[in-house]
Specification:
The chain is α+β, with helices and mostly antiparallel strands. The protein has 16 helices and 18 strands. The protein has a seven-stranded antiparallel sheet, with helices on both faces. A five-stranded antiparallel sheet has the order 5-6-10-8-9.
Amino acid sequence: MPLAPADHAFVQRLSALLPDDTLRPAEARHREEPRGRWTSTAEWIALPRSTEEVSTIVRTCAETGVGIIPLGGGTGLVGGQLKPDGPAPLIVSLERMSAIRSVHPEENAAVVQAGAILADVQSAAADVDRLFPLSLASEGSARIGGLLGTNAGGINTLRYGNARDQVLGLEAVLPDGSVWHGLKRLRKDNTGYDLRHLLIGAEGTLGIITAASLKLAPRPAATGTALLTVPSPEAALTLLALARGQLGETISAFELMHRTGFDFLAEKLPDLRQPWDRPPEWSVLMDIGLGRGADPAEALETLFAAAHEADLVTDGIVAQSLAQSEALWTLREHMSEANRLVGAVSSHDISVPLGAIPEFISRAGPALARLGDWRINCFGHAGDGNLHYNVFPVPGRTKADHVDQRDAIKTCVHDLVHELGGSVSAEHGIGRLKVDDLELYGDPAKLAAMRAIKSALDPKGIMNPGAVLRG
């Protein structure tokens, strides 16, 4: 059934059911996405203050056939937070529902509303000497609901897992307006289908997450950081295996970075001080967290000695203070900003099995060279197989010169990822950008099951229409 627009008559009907100031004309920040690729057709935004108000909004949209776009912090990079065509939907933002309801350090748990900003949740955990380990560059603006809706990853996935692994329970409004009260703090609950994992990663297509019970973790008593020069991606993976053998599961981050990333930092963000005059071809940035009485700098220096003897590293820096650690991570965290300033022709958030990382890197470059001359910035969370493989024009040219090649570049990269048993969306989700890719590379049985679930829970197709699955 075709969707109806969120027009003046609809707004009048919904306004009568809600407190004043819940509905407003949408602002530019609600209708745009970070890369500037699309602008939403939505003209109105709802800003509810409670789960009950979200329920009223969704129920009214279901009755009238108006599409809903759930909005978190708006930091997503695949267009899941806006609808660029078709009847104007209603944006539903949970920015007013940002409370941290309770923190339970004895249980290593916290209950928060979906509009809570990630950095605020991290701070609340730190206040009781706990850690909420989900961490990514946009943590100062990204909201919990959006992070769970996209199953966000980040730098600590190696040790703590994706967003999905940080959740004990959820509260959510389903597409008919009913409320699922699943906000339990249980580690074990085998009472049928796990709706929690169905909604996490669904990108708002099956309902709106309104609150979450989150797992916290003990804070490591001591942390350490090392930036190590490696001769190749193969050496980086062997180094990871050696590090795990020596340090076990204390490794929280293991980032592989190519020289191009540091070149971009020097070109576009020259005020960021780099630790070398000429960056190496490949380097690894790693973090560890140890228990009380352990010395992380000593542990990393011992690892460096063993890795150097095995010809896995040629140089390195072990941070001797928190300030030095933060300075090293500042370089990694600003690579995405430098990429944006240079202007990628095509960006790829991909994952492959760990053992296939070297083969992917060695084959992707020559395959792309057959399409033209490029600069490639390959960096990312090598510890969990997630690479950000971005293709840029050579100096003197811009991405606008290669618009007609973007699809060919993407196909070249994604075909190889699929051949190696990987995923064309590692941590950013499908949104609207990768709907075609999901249909092309997705398993047919899985896609059929996804469509059946969507049809059963959202028969009118009002929840984030056109995202993940074609409308």
